[in-house]
Here is the input.
Amino acid sequence: MKVVVDCEFTQLNSNSKLISMALVAEDGRELYFELNDNYTISDCSEFVVERVLPQLTGGQDSMSTENSRNRLLGFLATFDSVDIMSDAPAWDWEFFCSMAYHQGKWPNNVSNRPINLIDLYNEMGVEVNEAPELPHHALLDARMLMSHYKRCIKL
Here is the structure.
């Protein structure tokens, strides 16, 4: 099963912290969570404060890192085999790994390498500039990326 991951995080540097994560599977199943114990507003860039934080939904989507990890691992366990895809694996894959790798274990059904959507599009001759402008909300972005993948790759 191909699953797109998208993350929002505090800033574009090595001190970045995860804010939210979404996974959208090619069969339509979704997972979304926002971390409420992983960052402060002072950790965030101006862009994140202006464009990302106002879009957070809070409520039942807001949870601790531990609860988020449990939901992620439970979601992944519902698939026989998982290939994670991202348009920004240098960021999203690292955050995904930080959540999925737990107590010295990697989920057996999850490939340990991401599929870079941009590289995949280039290999298949799909114009990368055809990709949609993303709104910087992890779930909306993951949905758009999966939709674009399905449309371009013709699943």
